[in-house]
Design a protein that fits this description.
alpha/beta, twelve-stranded mixed beta sheet, 10 helices, 30% helix, binds S-adenosylmethionine, binds iron/sulfur cluster
Length: 322
C-alpha cells in the first residue's frame, strides 16, 4: 500500500501521455509553447507501463490518462488495453477535449475503457471557439454523443470564466441533465501559462447562478475526490463543484501524477518532481520503486491556491494533465 508522509493513502495515478494539444484553451495553453519536449525524451508506452505495473502492484486502483490531449498520442487504445489486461478491475478513465472522440471512442471501449471525462465549456459555437481558439463545438458534441451511445460512463468538465461563458452554467447543466450525465464545474486555477486577462468564477458564484433557477443541497464529497456533489431539489439531478481555492480536499488527497517524459509529481501546484525515466529505461524496477517512495514521502501537505495568497502555479496544466 502507498502511504505518503502525512499518512494519506495514495491509490490514484494520473498519467499525462502527451503535453501536446489540438486546442489552445485560454486558461491552459493559450499559445503554442516555445518548444515541446523532444520526441526522444518521451517515454514510450512500454516504459510508462513498467511504472504503471509497479504502481498497481503497490495498490493503485484508479488510473486516468490525460494530457495535453491524450487522444493525440498514437495507439492510445493499445496502451489502454495493456493496462486493462494487466488489471481488468482497475478504474481506468481518460480526460479528453472530445475533438477526436467520435472516431476513437469505439476502439477505446473495445480496449477496456469504461469512463471518460470530456471538457465542454460552452454550447455556443463562437464562445467555444473563443475559449479553445479553434472551431471545435460540433466535433466535441459528436464525441459526447458517440461516447454515450457506446455506453461509456461520461462526465463533463466546465471551467466558468467571467464575461466569457459564465452565462452558460445553467445551459450546460441542463444539457447534461437531459443526457443523464454528470457535470462538474471547475474553478479556474491561476497559472502563469494562462491568458493573464481571464478570470474565473468563484465556486460560490457558480452556485449562485444555479440557485437562480433551482434549490440545491450540498451532499458531500465522493471519497477522496476534490469534487463536492450538490443535488437539485426539484429534479434530483446531482452535479459536482471543484473549488481548489479552498484546498480542504488536500487532507484526503490520494493522487500522484506522471508526465509523458517520466516526471513523477506529488502535487499539481508545486514544481517539485523526480524522474523515473532512467530507471524504467534501464529496467531498474527497484530504483523506480524507490523514487516512488521518495516522492510519496515528500508529497506536500496542501496546494497553494489559497484565497488570500493567490499567486497561482508555474506548472502548466497541459504538462501535468490537470
Ligand atoms: N485536454 C484534455 C481536456 O481538456 O479535457 C485533458 C487535459 S486538461 C489539462 C484536463 C482538465 O483540466 C480539463 O477539464 C481542463 O478544463 C482543466 N483545466 C485546464 N486548465 C485549467 C485551469 N487553469 N483551471 C482549471 N481547470 C483547468
Ligand atoms: Fe488542451 Fe485540455 Fe489544455 Fe484545453 S484544457 S489546451 S484541450 S490540454
Amino acid at each position: 500500500m502507498l502511504i505518503d508522509g502525512y499518512g494519506r493513502r495514495v491509490n490514484y495515478l494520473r498519467v499525462s501521455v502527451t503535453e501536446r494539444c489540438n486546442f489552445r484553451c485560454q486558461y491552459c495553453m493559450p499559445e503554442k509553447p516555445f518548444s515541446w519536449v523532444p520526441q526522444e525524451n518521451l517515454l514510450d508506452f512500454n516504459e510508462l507501463f513498467k511504472f504503471i505495473k509497479i504502481a498497481i502492484d503497490e495498490g493503485v486502483d484508479k488510473i486516468r490518462l490525460t494530457g495535453g490531449e491524450p487522444l493525440l498520442r498514437a495507439n492510445l487504445d493499445e496502451f489502454v488495453k495493456m493496462i486493462h489486461d494487466y488489471a481488468p478491475n482497475i478504474d481506468l478513465a481518460i480526460t479528453t477535449n472530445g475533438y477526436l472522440l467520435s472516431e476513437m471512442a469505439k476502439s477505446l471501449k473495445d480496449a477496456g475503457l469504461k469512463r471518460l471525462n470530456i471538457s465542454l465549456d460552452s454550447l455556443k459555437p463562437a464562445i467555444a471557439a473563443q475559449i479553445a481558439q479553434k472551431n471545435v463545438l460540433g466535433k466535441v458534441l459528436d464525441g459526447i454523443d458517440r461516447a454515450i451511445e457506446l455506453d461509456l460512463r461520461v462526465k463533463i468538465n466546465m471551467v466558468p470564466l467571467k464575461g466569457i461563458n459564465d452565462s452558460e452554467i445553467l445551459d450546460i447543466l441542463e444539457y447534461c441533465k437531459d443526457r443523464d450525465i454528470q457535470v462538474r464545474f471547475i474553478e479556474y486555477m491561476e497559472n502563469s501559462h494562462a491568458n493573464s486577462e481571464i478570470s474565473g468564477m468563484h465556486g460560490r458564484e457558480i452556485l449562485e447562478s444555479i440557485k437562480e433557477r433551482y434549490t440545491i443541497h450540498r451532499l458531500g464529497r465522493e471519497g477522496s475526490s476534490p469534487s463536492y456533489n450538490y443535488q437539485i431539489e426539484e429534479n434530483g439531478y446531482i452535479f459536482g463543484l471543484i473549488d481548489p481555492h479552498k484546498h480542504d480536499f488536500c487532507e484526503s488527497c490520494n493522487r500522484i501524477r506522471l508526465t509523458a517524459e517520466g516526471h513523477l509529481i506529488p502535487c499539481l501546484y508545486f514544481d517539485e518532481a523526480q524522474s523515473i525515466a532512467e530507471a524504467v529505461r534501464n529496467n531498474d524496477i527497484d530504483r523506480a520503486s524507490a523514487i516512488l517512495a521518495e516522492v510519496l514521502r515528500d508529497k506536500p501537505k496542501e496546494n497553494r491556491w489559497s484565497e488570500s495568497d493567490n499567486e497561482g502555479s508555474n506548472r502548466a496544466f497541459y504538462e501535468t494533465g490537470g
